Amino acid sequence: MINSLFLINPSGEIFLEKHWKSVVSRSVCDYFLEAKEKALEPEDVPPVIHTPHHYLISIYRDKLFFLSVIQTEVPPLFVIEFLHRVAEMIQDYFGECSETVVKDHMVMVYELLEEMLDNGFPLATESNVLKEMIRPPTILRSVVNTLTGTSNVGDTLLTGQLSTIPWRRAGVRYTNNEAYFDVVEEIDAILDQSGTTVFAEIQGVVEACVKLSGMPDLTLSFMNPRLLDDVSFHPCVRYKLWESERVLSFIPPDGNFTLMTYHVNAQNLVAIPVYVKQSISFFECGSDGRLDVTVGPKQTMGKTVEGVMVTVHLPKTILSINLTATQGSYTYDNGTKVTTLWDIGKLNPQKLPNLRGSLSLQAGAPKPEENPSLNIDLKIQQLAISGLKVNRLDMFGEKYKPFKGVKYITKAGKFQVRT
Amino acid sequence: ELTSYKSFVEQACIVHFLISFSPSRNEDLKEMLESNKESLKLEAMKRVVGLIAKGKNASELFPAVVKNVASKNIELKKLVYVYLVRYAEEQQDLALLSISTFQRALKDPNQLIRASALRVLSSIRVPIIVPIMMLAIKEAASDMSPYVRKTSAHAIQKLYSLDQDQKELLIEVIEKLLKDKSTLVAGSVVMAFEEVCPDRIDLIHKNYRKLCNLLVDVEEWGQVVIISMLTRYARTQFTSPWKEDGVFDEHNERAFYESDEEKTRDETEAKPYMMDPDHRLLLRNTKPLLQSRNTAVVMSVAQLYWHLAPKNEVSIVTKSLVRLLRSHREVQYIVLQNIATMSIQRKGMFEPYMKSFYVRSTDATHIKSLKLEILTSLANEANISTILREFQTYVKSQDKQFAAGTIQAIGRCATNISEVTDTCLNGLVLLLSNRDETVVAESVVVIRKLLQIQPTQHSDIIKHMAKLFDNITVPMARASILWLMGEYCERVPKIAPDVLRKMAKSFTSEEDIVKLQTVNLAAKLYLTNSKQTKLLTQYILNLGKYDQNYDIRDRTRFIRQLIVPNDKNGALSKYAHRILLAPKPAPVLESAYKDRDRYQLGTLSHTINTKASGYLELSDWPAVAPDQSVRNVEVIEPTVKSKPAKSSDDKFYSDSGEEEEKGSGSSSSEDGSSSSSSEESGSDAESHVQKNSSQTSEESDKSSSQSEKSSSESDSEKKERKTKTPLQKKTIFNEESWTYVTKQQHTKTIFVNVINQHSVLQTFSYSHWSTLCVSLFTQLCPLSLAFPLQLSGPAFVPEKSHDLLHRMTGKGLSAQYQFPRQPCLYQPTMVSVQISLTNTTDHPLEQIHIGDRSPTGLNIHCFNTIECLEPEASVTVFMGIDFNDSTQAANFQLCTKEDHFSVSIQPAIGELLLPITMTELDFRKEQGKLLGMNESSATITMAAENMTSQPISRPVATVANLGMVPSSQDNVHRFAGKTANSGAVVLVTVELRGESTALITINTEKSVMGSMLLRDLKLALAQA
């Protein structure tokens, strides 16, 4: 299936290659690099490229290209999904996924890739299984390793892969048994000039951090499961029980994982927590424009809106800007995309933050056709905007009493204001 | 000074560069690898793997690396494996040195070691080891551990890609593995099936129901593969569930207004079409997978429903597909492509989710255009106003390519929905005054297409465009306007000639496409309005005549002949009007995804819109369903390992609730859980049998099946879980039941053809060798295994070598031979001889090989010709000689390019034997058969200090290649061997009597050999 993998940085340097079948010369990447040159943004590089002898499927993530080489028919999503798992695995092991991290842990990444695929077919992609085979580096361990000459490769024989629950390793022991669940909801919305909602929906995800000894069997139930319209689960969740009783019953993986993602019923009106008043105009004759943006709280259910950030995608012809913010600070980025990032922070209903000032265009540039769009970022602690509530968490199979906790948080997802 | 400093730095850099890339860098790695310190080796291997990861060549380190393959250090070993798999293909011969290590590991009692050995062994892409791989795969396919079986399924594909000739044998293994009931194996074996023999649908029949039922518990990647295979299977085995659409159209219409419930009942009862229960089983069992977190699984279920489900059921996949749009950009891309294809045929499916396809300014360009495509397909009378409003926003986008795409989309909407054609046209005309060229150009092109559809009422639009003509610079747009003028010149009789006049002025500076349309316009005007335009036309035709572009010259010539009447072409010019001004059919504006449905959804071929290599065509539904009974499974399957797979084998969340779903028909019969009674008699009987057979299962299997049982789980009873979980940890299989022959592992055999050409070998000491080369021989020669006597390793290998060719007689070429006492690989009847050739001359010797031999019937396996032997160099080669159990010398010629030297090898009698192991009991039994004339004995006198067993066995082993037989008496020593050629047993007994005498007895049917051996032994022991 997957023949080879190349990791390429944004400047086009191939800094890691791995082959699972016969070696494919790295010159095959030239087709990709050509396409990359053509694309304005790295995101615009087509994910599937057809070359005379191979098919190149790539993803762009964390400022890195993961390029896989395929020789025969294979579902493209299969490859894409796998490549994202690779990125997630690197993230999981080393805390971040970046060129430097991969270069620093070249051998380990290579070994991990070796374990993940056999002959191009996924063999072990579960983080728990991989971690049993190749232990992630920690500062303490690397000190111990240098002193004692021991290694990161697990010397015990792994069992995870063999069990019927491949996502959980055997013999887990904790002194403090705890299970935390974060219900994170994101609002995707498009608002038009007048502030009316063109499109809005809520996507949620339940992230779990479970550190429980032995083989616990958990059941998580919601107060209002009817809200959930469409769900997808971690493989550990028993689908049948969800179908019949609307509870999540599962033997959890050890550590952090995504338990479920959900989509809230589209019929429910989505509460939009903030409103944005904006006026951006360019003068017909001169090469000037004005910008005036105000953000205020709308439906916040009595909670404070934090971490508000506004990104303005300005036209390319902008030469300079001169703005003043009543709250927070703004930065101006004049790269391939001209953007202004206004970091507001906490939203104070008494004193609404405002950003205003003038924009100057390059001399002779025509008045921009379209006004720039705004992207909003925000965070509301202790609130799931859909109103979803966890009812209870029960544990079977083990005797101890775990410490349990649920946290709610609402964020802006793809939240865009057209102007 | 500064510049000189600079140049110094530069030089230093260059020097540094050279140092770091010179071979010396790898030299130090080599040293580290050959050191005794584990930590150094490990460090070196890490650096080597680092080189591989960076794509640098590290192949010259192969000999140094491969020596560490048998290391005890797991990390080091893993790194060596990584290296091996990477370079084995390039260094095939050297790679063979490692094979024996894996072969030994294949017999390891630990399943993980067996699996990893098979994994690496099969990844070594060296054609010579194909038979070994084949054997290993076959063995692993019936391994007790499902994990090893999974690995063997992977190995099948690797072997197949290495050697396609193995197909038939591999299919047998696949067939066997398909019967496997472990979820671990299912995905991998189906993958192998798809790769090796996707056309052997017949292998699936019996496993179809099992695969359907196991599907939920298979790991996610396997699910994708199985679903795609089952999709193809279903299309060949079931009849179309879509039939009613065509035949019962009317009926359907009516059903539409009835409630859903009635409709489904309609389908099952009233209509002649009855869905095969197996077809239904597949649809039902894949549905939960729509909730998978793996986007590839969701997509594959979606395509399964699209290709297999009745039309009214397909829409259940919509929600899940829309969910995938929240995922990564690349996932969006693929999913949107598939939705684009789906939405053309089934608008209704995605219409409720229209807003999910709204474009954000931050979307990537290809995502934007796909969303646009889908929105256009979804447009209908009811939602067009919403969509057009949305499009208005897009047209203003800063991404001009996207804006142009939107204009095309508007054009498509306008043609598809006649109500809005006018609105769209007006909107597009407004865009003509846009500042951006591409937008204007695209608008012109789209307007032209729209006008062609309804030309009658739009002369003012044409006039407007003529006005704008001067400001439009994009060639395509200019050409489009010119064409419009020409086509509808009668509607704008005043303007058209004026446009032509302008064009005549600027003709030479226009683009080719504009020139062509100018010529066109001129011709049409000439025909309709020759009074005003005759001169203009001629002027333009003259310009065209001398144009640089031959297309334009050709066109001009053609037009001139057509429209300007002269004597020769009178007939044609009569029709000129009809030719040029014929009513032209309006262009059809349609989706680029219209024809994509010829490919199976979700495939690579669908994405790239061409047939990818290895794409498997989805067949059409058969008109008549093939025999359904082929999928029925017999009650008992005779399996070798006879593990009467528990229904719950190692399914984790599999539903024993299967039975609650009525009408599942025979679906549950195959693995319907034996614990719960099902309502069907068939499955009832079967489960009964299963119970029985499980009781009779072998002792050794019991523990494994028990532990597997414990890990199985029924969803319904929560209480039971408490008691079960502790048991789950015991999923350890019974290792003791795994028996294998340890003795064989120590057999030191030599894989002659591997090594005889390689001087590298010389770096290996003998002891190295014996650890490296193991039971290869026995594997390659299954015949010798059949011999009841177990071959063993030599007890002692004498270092003594004999002169074959002296350097004086050999004109500088010297040769020595010795007997390595390894079974010969080529033929078990041969004795292997190791020959060291040394060149003592000062010039290279070329083409060293073996020439004529005598007696002529002498059976020799020659070593491969040595192309060149450098001065002072030496090389060790191996050959096999069949001495025919006699000490008669083997004479042959050793040839170089120039010379022939007659040489002869005379073996000592002891070298014609091969050691065997047997118990004392067997020894006596054999001895009893070989009495009388087959026995020869002698009494000798030996020194007193040699009376312990150690010194006895040493001289005996030196003389003859015999194996020790354990003895219960202190004073009796027994040795056993067989003759190389005939395999006759040779038994030697040394009995110590009293102070210094010993009785030597030799029993063998080869009495001549017996007496010769006796003589040698007498000599040796007396000396001792």
Automatic annotation (TrEMBL), chain A:
Q: Give a yes or no for keyword Transport in this entry.
A: yes
Q: Does Iron-sulfur count among this protein's keywords? A: no
PROSITE patterns from the UniProt entry: CLAT_ADAPTOR_M_1, CLAT_ADAPTOR_M_2, MHD
Q: Give me the Gene Ontology terms describing cellular component.
A: clathrin adaptor complex; cytoplasmic vesicle membrane; Golgi apparatus
Q: What does this protein do?
A: Part of the AP-3 complex, an adaptor-related complex which is not clathrin-associated. The complex is associated with the Golgi region as well as more peripheral structures. It facilitates the budding of vesicles from the Golgi membrane and may be directly involved in trafficking to lysosomes.
Tell me its family.
Belongs to the adaptor complexes medium subunit family.
The protein in question is named AP-3 complex subunit mu-1
Origin species: Oncorhynchus kisutch (Coho salmon)
Its lineage reads: Eukaryota, Metazoa, Chordata, Craniata, Vertebrata
Instruction: Name the gene behind this protein.
Output: LOC109876118
UniProtKB/TrEMBL annotation, chain B:
**What Pfam families does the entry give?**
Adaptin_N (PF01602), AP3B1_C (PF14796), AP3B1_C_2 (PF24080)
Q: Which ranges carry the Beta-adaptin appendage C-terminal subdomain domain?
A: 912-1022
Name the keywords, alphabetized: Cytoplasmic vesicle, Golgi apparatus, Membrane, Phosphoprotein, Protein transport, Transport
Q: What are the residue boundaries of the AP-3 complex subunit beta C-terminal domain, all occurrences included?
A: 747-888
Which GO cellular component does the record give, naming just one? Golgi apparatus
Bias (Basic and acidic residues) occurs at 710-720
For membrane topology, the record states:
Peripheral membrane protein
Low complexity bias locations: 664-680, 693-709
Region described as Disordered:
640-728
Instruction: Tell me the GO BP annotations in alphabetical order.
Output: intracellular protein transport; vesicle-mediated transport
Keyword Metal-binding carried by entry? no
Q: Which InterPro entries match?
A: AP3_beta, AP3B1/2_C, AP3B_C, AP_beta, ARM-like, ARM-type_fold, B-adaptin_app_sub_C, Clathrin/coatomer_adapt-like_N
| Localization per Swiss-Prot or TrEMBL | Cytoplasmic vesicle, Clathrin-coated vesicle membrane; Golgi apparatus
Q: What does this protein do?
A: Subunit of non-clathrin- and clathrin-associated adaptor protein complex 3 (AP-3) that plays a role in protein sorting in the late-Golgi/trans-Golgi network (TGN) and/or endosomes. The AP complexes mediate both the recruitment of clathrin to membranes and the recognition of sorting signals within the cytosolic tails of transmembrane cargo molecules. AP-3 appears to be involved in the sorting of a subset of transmembrane proteins targeted to lysosomes and lysosome-related organelles.
Family indicated by similarity: Belongs to the adaptor complexes large subunit family.
Protein name from the UniProt record: AP-3 complex subunit beta
